[in-house]
Amino acid sequence: MKQKILLHLDTDPLASTFDRIVAIDAGVDVLLSHPLVTPENLTPIVHGAIFTRGPDDLKSTAIFIGGSDINAGQKLLDKIQTLFFADRRVSVMLDSNGSNTTATAAVLCAARHMSLKTVRALVLGGTGPVGLRVCQLLAREGAQVMLASRELERAETAVAQVHGALPTDEISSTAITAVSTQNMPAGDLLKEVDLLISAGSAGVSMIDEKTWSSATALKVAIDLNAVPPSGIEGITPTDNGADHHAKVCYGALGVGGLKMKIHRAALQDLFHDNTHILETFSLYEFASKTLSS
């Protein structure tokens, strides 16, 4: 069997140490990291991957797209797929800034405790790369989602992105709504919410403990910020299904344990054949079937 070669394409000046270590721990034999990858310099890299091995051996080559900019990563994924043809292709995973694996892990943590089809969710920091993908996944699962931002216009733009990412038959026009935390107090937003997820910027407190602890309908609270102060005051990064104020709580490291399992398992799955494209929805489907616990 050919050695498993992973091409690590990073859009940043320095290829991520984190992504490289996870790849090695996932059992990759040879890791080829390329920083500062753009759609303009991508073609020879991809051609080198698809033309050096025969069709039967291409499943032993795969591509991982990382970097801090999810939009730049998405452009690479789109370009890569135009370069494939016939059986000349390899499997690809997109996880810039850990956005897809983190969002998947957060939603699966919530799904341990509630049916997502009936959930009423509030996502703070919903316009960011992780928050946006959390909203996409929740809406696709049937949840009623409030996507929150300080600026209503930004929230409305993000809602349009969510609708654009899903076929119209998979999401109702009222499944996701934009809300502004400046226009409406967090306590009012939480009145009928079952699930609270904070995906705001690192080191920014999004909601105080008194407000969320007194929300009587709230069942699950998930904070994805590992940098002090907590995004949801009173939740610690290591909380992993902890009980605070009669609510199930997860911190960033608690979610992170599942995120790491998903990341490693998805990398391993790339080498099962040469046709996998793992991004937001396909990654979630893969993880929900294989290791949601």
Explain what this protein looks like in three dimensions:
The protein is α/β, with parallel strands linked by helices and 293 residues long. The protein has ten helices and twelve strands. It has helices spanning 17-25, 43-51, 70-83, 99-111, 129-140, 152-165, 186-189, 209-213, 252-269, 280-290, and strands spanning 5-10, 30-34, 61-66, 91-94, 120-124, 144-149, 176-180, 195-198, 220-223, 240-244, 247-250, 277-278. The strands form two sheets. It has a seven-stranded mixed beta sheet. A five-stranded parallel beta sheet has the order 2-1-3-4-12, with helices on both faces. Strand 10 (240-244) and strand 11 form a beta hairpin. Helix 4 (99-111) packs across helix 5 (129-140), helix 4 crosses helix 10 and helix 5 (129-140) crosses helix 6.
Short structural summary:
The chain is α/β, with parallel strands linked by helices and 293 residues long. Helices cover 37% and strands 19% of the residues. A seven-stranded mixed β-sheet has the order 7-6-5-8-9-11-10.
